[in-house]
């Protein structure tokens, strides 16, 4: 099995502003209009890798995002919606509640981390309408804690 550093090099991954490493692998040539009225590609895709205690810090985008697990340790995805924390496990062990894919609805605050904090997780993410950094919002800890006060501990870990 490859190491995280092998995959970062072989897949030409770069640091991502939310944490971890990524590389865009697909951007549809077809355009659409997003709900905010902006022109967007119909779909985009990336590789994304988290290693050990790396975090995908809480953020949200204006499109649905579909995550696919490829290899490594299970990935915990933490979603804040409707005042509640939902934790999804992305991985290959379906019998233990892990799923090979998961959806993050548009406008949902979410973050991710390697389950257990040891090893790495390699996933892919597709976004439709396609991802644009203009639609990306990194969470502010104080503001997010005010919105979800019962989740202050996990917000502190992922902001």
What's the short version?
The protein is mainly beta. The chain is built from three helices and 13 strands, in the order αβββββββββββββαα. A hairpin with a 5-residue loop joins β1 and β2 (21-27).
Structure report:
By secondary structure, this protein is mainly beta. The chain has a single domain, classed as Jelly Rolls (Sandwich). It is built from 3 helices and 13 strands. A hairpin with a 5-residue loop joins strand 1 and strand 2.
Give the SSE layout.
Elements: H1 4-10, E1 14-15, E2 21-27, E3 31-33, E4 39-41, E5 44-51, E6 55-60, E7 64-72, E8 75-81, E9 84-90, E10 101-104, E11 109-114, E12 120-128, E13 137-138, H2 141-147, H3 152-157
Antiparallel strand pairs: 1-2, 2-5, 3-4, 5-12, 6-11, 6-13, 7-10, 7-12, 8-9, 8-11
Question: Numbering strands along the chain, what is their spatial order in the largest sheet?
Answer: 1-2-5-12-7-10
Largest sheet: 6 strands, antiparallel
Radius of gyration: 15 Å
Q: Note the gap between the termini.
A: 31 Å
By DSSP, the count of extended strands is: 13
CATH architecture: Sandwich
* CATH hierarchy class name: Mainly Beta
Which spans of ≥5 residues are poorly predicted at pLDDT below 50? none
In CATH, the topology is named: Jelly Rolls
Number of domains: 1
Shape: globular
What is the typical, i.e. mean, pLDDT? 96
Number of helical elements: 3
Q: What is the helix fraction of residues, given as a range?
A: 10-25%
Structural classification: mainly beta
